[in-house]
Amino acid sequence: MLRLNDMLITESNPSSYVSESFRSLRTYIRQQVIGQTDRGTVLLLTSPESGAGKTTLLANIGVSFAQEGKKVVLVDCNLHTPALHEIFGLENTEGLSAYLRGGASSKSIVRHGVPELSVIPGGDTLYNAADLLGSERMVELLEGLKREYDIILLDSAPALNYTDARLVASMTDGVILVARHARTKREDLRKTKQLMDQAGATLVGIVMNQVK
Predict the structure, then answer these.
(1) The overall pTM is greater than 0.85
(2) Strand pairing of 174-180 and 72-76?
């Protein structure tokens, strides 16, 4: 039995004003990028620094899409400090890192999260995460997921600390930047946007998180 983290408020308390905020964000994302192709939409969530809450944000956005009937998969591409599995009460074994190293199939790393939503945990941490995330094997995984799912949401390591987000961004349909209210520096956001531009990624928007 799954033991969902309290941070998954869209599942535990869907009638709350916070859940409604996620539904508003879902509507914005749908209007900006979803439905522009006949396959699944791939979105990356990243932030300039750690602690912005992007993993929690990603999980709740994913649940919100699943609640309206979309088939969703969440992929933990933060192979330095994977955390997505904790929100859904899953084991962090045989995840994305195992697939990228060639030790697991794409089917074997998918876990059930909540109805209509699947999770691919990060798995073991990797010193050469950037090399593997930028590989053809990662491209093949995303191509397969686009054929099977409506929404593919990717978590990543902080963009200013690692090159991972820049590599993965080029494989997506859009990027959402997550900033921490009153903490994330404007200059760091500017630098992160510049990096995403250099990667050829489409900026969908900036989400101000942890606003009280």
Answers:
(1) yes
(2) unpaired
